């Protein structure tokens, strides 16, 4: 999920449950005009940071504690990461999304798009 600076959804990619989110991260931010990409420690990988910097954006991702060379990141800008958490809290008000009633991925993704529409309208 990618949200803008106001917490509105921009892009949704549904992946399999056993796949790490970072596998789809480069695809999610592809062709998005932005100045900074804010993500949590789970996205701290050299190849993803290189994709962000190649796009001309700043990677605001805190480094993992086991990194040999710790990267610096903007702590003040990182505080805005709560926008994605608030977005997920909003769409989980839809019981169908929170409990994943749909068996088919296309049905679940369709309802996520519908919930995103409600977020944009609210």
TrEMBL record:
Has UniProt tagged this entry with the keyword Ion transport?
no
Does this entry carry the keyword Signal?
no
Q: What is this protein called?
A: Transposase
A Pfam family recorded for this sequence: DDE_Tnp_1_2
Domain called Transposase DDE: residue spans: 38-121
* Matching InterPro entries: Tnp_DDE_dom
Sorted alphabetically, the keyword list is: Membrane, Transmembrane, Transmembrane helix
Mind telling me which residue stretches traverse the membrane in this protein? 104-121
Q: Which NCBIfam families does the annotation name?
A: transpos_IS5_3 (NF033580)
